[in-house]
Prior knowledge:
alpha/beta; binds pyridoxal-5'-phosphate; 15 strands; six-stranded mixed sheet
Amino acid sequence: MKYVSTRGEAPELGFSDALLTGLARDGGLYVPREWPQLSAADIRAMRGLAYPEAALRLLTPFIGGEIPEAALKRIVEEAYATFRHPAVCPLVQTGPSEFVLELFHGPTLAFKDVAMQLLTRLMDHVLTERDQRVTIAGATSGDTGGAAIHAFAGMERADVFILFPHGRVSPVQQRQMTTCRAPNVHAIAIEGNFDDCQALVKAMFNDHAFRDRVGLAGVNSINWARILAQIVYYFTAAVSLGAPDRPVSFTVPTGNFGDIFAGYAARRMGLPVERLIIATNENDILARTLATGEYAMRPVVATTSPSMDIQVSSNFERLLFEASGRNADEVRASMESLRQSGRFTLSADTLSEIRSVFGAERASVAETAETIRDTLAASGYLADPHTATALKAARAEARPGEVMVVLATAHPAKFPEAVEEASGVRPSLPPWLEGLMEEDEEFAVLSSDLKMVEDHISRHGRAALRE
Ligand SMILES: Cc1ncc(COP(=O)(O)O)c(C=O)c1O
Ligand SMILES: N[C@@H](CCOP(=O)(O)O)C(=O)O
């Protein structure tokens, strides 16, 4: 299996190189050269498999033999043994044909653990084989950072630097990043918003001298392996609900578009996914894009679902590439226009292709609170604000007879104030995280300045300390 860049000007890579490369050297994102295909019989044969078995089956064709089967099996089993639910990603029924797919049973209570627990083990395997070290730079609006810090803490071959927007993540999210004492992980509060953090990370990748000097790698969803891991739960959920003999739709709380792109990938592999509904908060750039055909940035507003307070939705580039018939010229022109003017217009064909699969809905802060309250009253289910945006979207879009799976991307206890204000119920952290809020924090505060951040990384990485 080879991987190609959405901008068409970077070398094709095998799985291990794509895993360690993060952003392609032409600024694009890697996608598989072709989508492995599963027949209806293959999908039916997944019924009754445990989550790690399903994961192993689905990951194997993407890895192209670069990791021996026994090692991959061990990696997958160890990754999902960190989850505290026997099903790993269980389904909960909340309405006659509405199901919530709970993705938050991992160590940091967000869906990011599903991919990050795998990513750290895959990287460790490849780095050990190659006797190599990396410096990881990541941007977070709250959840990726905690998941990455937890997953990579203590890993000998990686130094991890996580950039988060100062004052714009929830207190629980912040402490999950700032209380880890492992010497290889570093939290950096950036004076700016998530888009500034993400722009800094991409700028570091595009600074080839710095990138090569520190051996830069990425753990954001620019890294193909993040998306790959997330494909699995679309299959396990759909199969439990009757796929391939019954089509299923998914509604996904969306920011950087990685999670929902994994659903699109599952569909391209043959899973009968009827529709994918993008749920946004008031940072509704994707809902506006689907409505108007124009991707046009506006200032980010702070909401009660802070992990989705994003305007530059990285993985939309992967969808543009696919929906335009893999037209790297169109992708490059769109991304250049975005860089220069903060907007681009989709071609009529690309827009119509996207609309044939995707719908989109926006939920305001008030609607999100109302959905948390109504869902609790109607079904006894306590949703976090991100999940609630998707419940609202799913209900607005629902068609008679359609089986709708709503992705629950975070545990409500990560956002106790917003949940309590909406519902009157204050969710508490699970026992293994009790005491988190009392621990001492350690983090740097930097302005949104590339040179300053690069200097900080150069000075604090262990590779630098040893020189
Ligand atoms: C809780 C939560 N929900 C939804 C999202 C949006 O997911 P994505 O960025 O993959 O679209 C995020 C951040 O990624 C998140 O942390
Ligand atoms: N919502 C994310 C933002 C980063 O997204 P990623 O999926 O590209 O890592 C977060 O919580 O950090």
